[in-house]
Here is the input.
Amino acid sequence: MLNQIRPAATMLVAMTLLTGLAYPLAMTGLARVIAPELSQASITLRDGQPIGSALVAQPFAGAGYLHPRPSAVDYATMPSGASNLSPGSAALARQIAERRAAYQATNGAPAPVDAVTASGSGLDPEISVANATAQAIRIAKARGVDPDAVQAVIAGHVTQPLWGLYGEARVNVLLTNLALDEAMPMTPSGGN
Amino acid sequence: MHDLMGYALFCAALTAGGWVLARWMTRVYEGGPNPLTTVLGPVERGIYRLSGIDAQVQQGWRGYALAALAFNLLGFVLLYGILRLQQVLPLNPDGVGAISPDLAFNTAVSFVTNTNWQAYSGEAQLSYLSQMTGLTVQNFVSAATGMAVGLAVIRGFTAPKGTGLGNFWTDMTRSVLYVLLPLSILLAVALILQGVPQTLLGGAHVTTLEGAQQIIPRGPAASQIAIKQLGTNGGGFFGVNSAHPLENPTVASNMLQCLSILLIPVAFCFLFGRMARDARQGWAIYAAMGVMFLIGLVVVWAGETGAASLEGKEMRFGAALSALWGVVTTAASNGSVNAMHDSFMPLSGLVEIVNMAIGEVIFGGVGAGLYGMLLYVVLAVFLAGLMVGRTPEYLGRKIEAREVTLAMLAFLSMPLGILIGGAISVTVPTAAASIQEAGPHGLSETLYAYSSAVGNNGSAFAGWGAAAQWQTTALGLLMILGRFAIILPMLAIAGSLIAKRQSPVTVGTFPTHGPLFVTLLVLTVLILGALTFFPVLALGPIAEHTALAIGQSF
Here is the structure.
């Protein structure tokens, strides 16, 4: 084994330089050229200020905004996480019942399944179309506008399944909320 | 219905991609010039010169094994050192602290053995230097080690008598330079364009629309995620792995990652056929793996779409793509997740546990899946030989007592590690504290963890406390068992076979390429797996399924 130590050590150093430094650094340099914003976590700006990432959920709670899916870690990002509760868990059944009641009370509509189950990442930036649509009346009321206007903004932010085959139709919460703010700004008291 | 069409298209793309890649790999491993040698040839020769390696030297199975062991041992030492010292090393913009000795041991073993079990959360606990020069490097070289050993074992079965098993250093280097690195660059670029971060900037501090403070984690993620999938590694840049919207932002990124997980393992089936100079042999292995893959996929798909629960699942993937990934990642020894398997239906969990516990042979790890399946091939032809009363043969070579003994020895590492390790873990109170849930699911969690470690998979029922010191240590040791207690006997089998004469095919030869052999091989895998693990599966996932059916919760 001893005569294998020299090739092993040299090889390890060479591979570290190649795959641990040259490769990731080259990719980082390339990313800066081909996708400067995407490669820095899709930070979204408003009035020149970073207000979040289009890919990371924010804990929206105001009546004038779309609300994200539940998060088992209260939308923590460092690190994020999930409930990891099994389908037979009594605790999970209790949480789902509570969320269902809260959703009904807030939105006056029955809750779609994505609105009562916590996401895998705890940071799911998207909700189902049914979930978004069911929140429109509440949002319209808070913003003092016609529900159809809110529905129109939501409809403009629906992402369809890839090739009609893969994934679910869905709505990005942060981008839709930004569009709502732009199309129908809330007065300072409008959120109440 | 459109789910199944999507699955069919996925399988077709995967098969075509694997077939094309096998052609490329054949060319690469023959060692002659290829389109990439104009650029990378000097790098390859430079590495050999610095390391004092003669690329022409053939190693025996012992030499090959020693080289692999020495390389992996030093890799472990380096990675352990980087993890323990990351707080004083550069490239640590978020100022993360030191990693405890047991967690560093667990993580270093995990990445060296191609398991990539994660008892830590990358975004909160690892510096960029640890992720790049520590984990990314082992993502490459542990995968290349598996591919190299896979090649040596294939040569043992297929190469003419008197030729060698190859040279570990050249097989490993060529795997990195001409297969893993080019594919990783392509995938990393695609992922960057889908929104996966690739930057050395630290986390972005933002004020949300409602005035809360939020840190958006970032880092050189795309480059690591690309090789994590292609090398069937599976260790995420972020803690929740490919469920994280920055690790796997879109449906397109999801499909690309899913394909990448199985691409090289599928290619290895066809590479086997090419090196055996009989493509049908490769198709037979592919068919046996494919049948078991599809059975698992149908069960998990039916369970997850039927349950209509999105607990632990991401909206963009829904039930169907979460089910697909769950089967892909446990069939391959990848272990990345795009949904939380702990929240899957009991029978979905059962499929995932079986995929891992039979030894990761349904496509399996890069290289490792094929040599794992050849273990079952040895046992299958032995059984066939017993049934017809002839000396078993495979590819013209006699399978005798030594090969069957070695194959059984390798096989036993799975039940030994999983059942005995798991049994201790549920009986010793310190260890049993890792269980999150009451009832049979608690046993499933432990069974999943031990299957994952011994099978070198790396995924988890993540509610289970993997970071407890007992578990980091026990699972670390079992990952070593699961990796090397299969590599060494399989290399020994290869060394034994290559010394045997290849006899010509006669009418009395049992054909190893038709439906009969494929059926026999599948049954060998399932019967050995079922007989070994059925009792504990009955107490875990099956009991859980029954409880759920009668509405009992825990």
